[in-house]
């Protein structure tokens, strides 16, 4: 009995090879006045590509109503096994599915258009060194080392408390970004050159942008805990925004990586603010640091 899963394009479900004279891609008559399509492409590998649509055999009207052609042929012939889950694809994706795919397409298109510093030969290739300088300004290492240095030099309890929380914020950021990157595993854009200053293994993935999370987290932190004149406050916000934009211009990220990074950085600051470490709720940390 020919397996319906292995049948070629347009062949009616369950029909024998000799009866499948219909041309590829054309609807084939499945019996009972109904038409059914089998896979548009024969291999499972190509089915992984979402361009391949397949009618779910187990959910087709013919199957559901018990009038599958082979089943009708006799009780000894069992209906074909349902398609494996990975071979199936709904023909009527939900509105959410369509919206997400459209967003993804716009994201890829826009990110490619904005990636004007992705290489030396790109249209804005001459600005690339400046973008890379911005990249270092938002890198985890200078921020961690800077915070540790300031902590070691701080001689007031208030200063130490703020710096201890900044250190906590930076470490929380590294942890959450690494966790999400490892779970989502979205590859960096194809036009990115992997020439970044010190990276972790998860930094081969792009969602979310660690620079974008850090930019918003650190900016919110500075704006809330440092007394700055208005022009400096504007500069801090601008730095965060331009740093995020530079990630797309360098070709390191897609727009959605940076947008989600901004959102995550904003939420991270709220977490840090909520769990604010002080000599009252985390005395051990402060005593240990004092003893050094
Ligand atoms: C110094 C202390 C207390 C701890 C060190 C913790 C640690 C593992 C630091 C690693 C810092 C590091 C290499 C961060 C990577 C930053 C980076 C390249 C992020 C990628 O950003 P993206 O915007 O391209 O996603």
Number of domains: 2
Tell me the β content. under 5%
The coarse silhouette is globular
| Biggest sheet: strand arrangement | 1-2
Q: Could you give the distance between the termini? A: 79 Å
| Average pLDDT metric | 79
How many strands, what sense, and barrel or not for the largest sheet? 2 strands, antiparallel
H-E order: EEHHHHHHHHHHH
> What is the helical fraction, as a range of percent?
40-55%
Based on secondary structure, the structural category is mainly alpha
- Say what oligomer this is: single chain
Q: Which hetero ligands occur in this complex?
A: ligand L4R3MLFD
Unreliable stretches: 1-75
C-alpha-based Rg, rounded = 29 Å
Total helical elements = 11
Number of strands: 2
In words, what does this structure look like?
- By secondary structure, this protein is mostly helical.
- It folds into two domains: 17-89, no CATH class; 116-291, no CATH class.
- Helices cover 52% and strands 2% of the residues.
- The protein has eleven helices and two strands.
- The chain has helices at residues 44-48, 61-64, 69-73, 95-114, 128-137, 140-153, 157-184, 210-225, 230-249, 255-274, 283-291, and strands at residues 28-31, 34-36.
- Strands 1-2 form a two-stranded antiparallel sheet.
- Helix 8 (210-225) packs antiparallel against helix 9 (230-249).
- The longest helix is centred in the middle third of the chain and has 28 residues, at 157-184.
- The termini are far apart.
- It binds the ligand CC(C)=CCC/C(C)=C/CC/C(C)=C/CC/C(C)=C/COP(=O)(O)O.
């Amino acid at each position: 009995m020919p397996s319906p899963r292995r049948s070629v394009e347009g062949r009616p479900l369950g029909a024998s090879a000799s009866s499948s004279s219909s041309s590829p891609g054309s609807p084939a008559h499945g019996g009972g006045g109904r038409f059914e399509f089998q896979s548009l492409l024969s291999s499972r590998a190509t089915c992984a590509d979402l361009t391949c649509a397949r009618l779910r055999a187990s959910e087709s009207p013919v199957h559901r109503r018990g009038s599958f052609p082979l089943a009708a042929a006799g009780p000894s012939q069992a209906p074909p096994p349902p398609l494996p889950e990975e071979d199936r694809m709904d023909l009527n994706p939900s509105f959410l599915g369509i919206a997400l795919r459209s967003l993804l397409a716009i994201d890829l298109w826009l990110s490619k258009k904005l990636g004007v510093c992705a290489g030396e030969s790109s249209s804005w290739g001459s600005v690339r060194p400046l973008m890379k300088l911005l990249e270092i300004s938002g890198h985890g290492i200078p921020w961690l080392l800077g915070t540790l240095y300031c902590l070691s030099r701080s001689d007031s309890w208030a200063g130490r408390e703020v710096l201890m929380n900044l250190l906590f914020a930076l470490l929380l950021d590294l942890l959450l970004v690494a966790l999400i990157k490892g779970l989502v595993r979205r590859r960096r854009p194809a036009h990115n050159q992997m020439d970044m200053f010190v990276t972790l293994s998860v930094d081969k993935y792009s969602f979310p942008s660690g620079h974008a999370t850090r930019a918003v987290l650190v900016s919110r932190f500075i704006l809330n805990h440092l007394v700055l004149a208005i022009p400096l406050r504007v500069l801090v916000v601008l730095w965060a925004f331009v740093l995020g934009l530079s990630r797309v211009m360098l070709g390191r990220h897609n727009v959605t990586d940076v947008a989600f990074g901004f959102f995550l950085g904003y939420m991270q600051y709220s977490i840090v603010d909520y769990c604010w470490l002080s000599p009252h709720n985390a005395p051990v940390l402060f005593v240990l640091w004092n003893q050094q």
